[in-house]
Design goal:
Length: 115
């Protein structure tokens, strides 16, 4: 069944998909290092911190994520940490990507798991 947002949500690149999914898993208010760690833990890929932040910046420009700066913390030497939240546009794009992936792989799960 088509959702209305399927017609309007932008297509996600592979890494954008990973970053949004990791943000969804880690939860609202996650910061870049936690998102990076989630992707590394789940995929086994080693990532640079800058790759995640560049992608988060791009997703923010596309209105798929929103950021805010938290209060200074003692463990960061009084520095602030930037946190990220998935915006409605990002949720729509992620849902669309998920539905498209499920539709195209339907019936191929066993074969794909072997590759």
């Amino acid at each position: 069944m088509k959702h209305i947002q399927d017609y309007y949500a932008p297509v996600l690149g592979e890494f954008e998909h990973l970053v949004l999914t990791a943000l969804l898993r880690v939860g609202s208010g996650a910061y870049g290092a936690a998102i990076r760690q989630e992707i590394e833990d789940r995929t086994g890929r080693r990532l640079s911190v800058s790759a995640v932040y560049v992608t988060l910046t791009r997703l923010e420009r596309k209105k798929m994520v929103v950021s805010y700066v938290g209060p200074p913390t003692a463990q960061r030497g009084g520095r602030r940490k930037k946190h990220y939240v998935i915006a409605e546009e990002g949720e729509h794009a992620l849902g669309r990507a998920y539905r498209a992936f499920r539709a195209i792989t339907e019936g191929l799960e066993d074969r794909l798991a072997e590759l």
